[in-house]
Amino acid sequence: MHKTHDMRRYIPSLSALQAFEASASTLSFTRAGEELGRTQSGVSRQVSTLEALLGIELFERFGPRLVLTGAGEAYAASVSQILDQLEEASMDVIRGSRSADALQIGVQDSFASRWLVPRMKRFMEAHPDQAFNVIPLRGEVDFETGPDLAVMRGQGAWRDAVSYKLISERVAVVASTELIPPGRALPLSDHQAYPKIQNAHRPDSWLRWMGAKGIAHQGPISGPRFSQTTMVIEAALAGIGLAVLPVFMIEEYLEDGRLHLPFGDPVASGAGYYAVYPETRRPSAPIRIFRDWIMAETRSLR
């Protein structure tokens, strides 16, 4: 229904909604004020005014501690979503395009930072009119609410999805020149003399490397653990220990000599990287454009 000028919307002030959202997320008027650049008393007054307008208590107050009421919890979820949409709409105006119209490309952080992002300039030069957003993958991919296309590591089989192999992953044990001077290959058994950097994202990487090299596993595999492959790369560069790493992510460090392969050539990891999108609907033109581009970019890695 079209609204005329005398049909005023029943909407609280934006400052009151922002004060409430910040208070709901921090459960503190003081911390909310710090986030918003306002005083504690100013935030408290804004929330009290909002409660008076709605005729409902949004918080229970126990001294300085806040607890959301049931109505407050539900309202906070709605307000946060609406403010996100308002922010996105405002940014769309500034950008001159809708973010929702851009191709959403989901990638794991390490693959994005170490391989994809440095090459996206070539994609932009080849397809200057194709807008895109690169977003991180967290756990299982939901194509209904998540990316249009994802680059995923695995065996190539995902339910209700089409996958195209991009990279046959090969890994190697690497060391910095500070940890092991380069120049000669070491006996495989010598790996036991050095700390082994652990990759929480790939907990079986050392066992798989040993299996591929025909090394019998004996004793604990111990060493500092890092949560992402990018962190493991930095730890290896710092000389903290040996690391099992995908070779395609560290090519520049192997070329400039900061890392080397003291225990011989890379081996297949048993996994690969794939371009994946849902099979339940026909791929859009942007999906096909990006799929074909990244297939061409990775041809030498298959």
How would you describe this protein?
- With 302 residues, this protein is of the alpha/beta class.
- Helices cover 38% and strands 21% of the residues.
- It has ten helices and eleven strands.
- It has helices at 14-26, 29-36, 40-54, 70-95, 109-116, 120-126, 205-213, 229-237, 251-256, 285-297; strands at residues 59-62, 65-68, 103-107, 132-136, 149-154, 161-176, 198-199, 225-226, 243-246, 259-260, 267-278.
- Strands 3, 4, 5, 6, 9, 10 and 11 form a seven-stranded mixed β-sheet that branches. It has a two-stranded antiparallel ribbon with strand order 1-2.
- Helix 1 crosses helix 4.
- The model has no long low-confidence stretch (mean pLDDT 91).
SSE inventory with pairings:
Elements: H1 14-26, H2 29-36, H3 40-54, E1 59-62, E2 65-68, H4 70-95, E3 103-107, H5 109-116, H6 120-126, E4 132-136, E5 149-154, E6 161-176, E7 198-199, H7 205-213, E8 225-226, H8 229-237, E9 243-246, H9 251-256, E10 259-260, E11 267-278, H10 285-297
Parallel strand pairs: 3-4, 3-5, 7-8
Antiparallel strand pairs: 1-2, 5-11, 6-9, 6-10, 6-11
Helix pairs in contact: 1-2, 1-3, 1-4, 2-3
**Mean pLDDT metric:** 91
Order of helices and strands: HHHEEHEHHEEEEHEHEHEEH
Query: Helicity level, as a percent range?
Result: 25-40%
**So how many helices?**
10
The CATH architecture of the largest domain is 3-Layer(aba) Sandwich
For the sheet with most strands, the description reads: 7 strands, mixed
Name the CATH class of the largest domain. Answer: Alpha Beta
Report Rg. Answer: 26 Å
What class do helices, strands and sheet pairing give?
alpha/beta
Q: How would you sum up the global shape?
A: globular
- Give the distance, in angstroms, between the N- and C-terminal Cα atoms: 57 Å
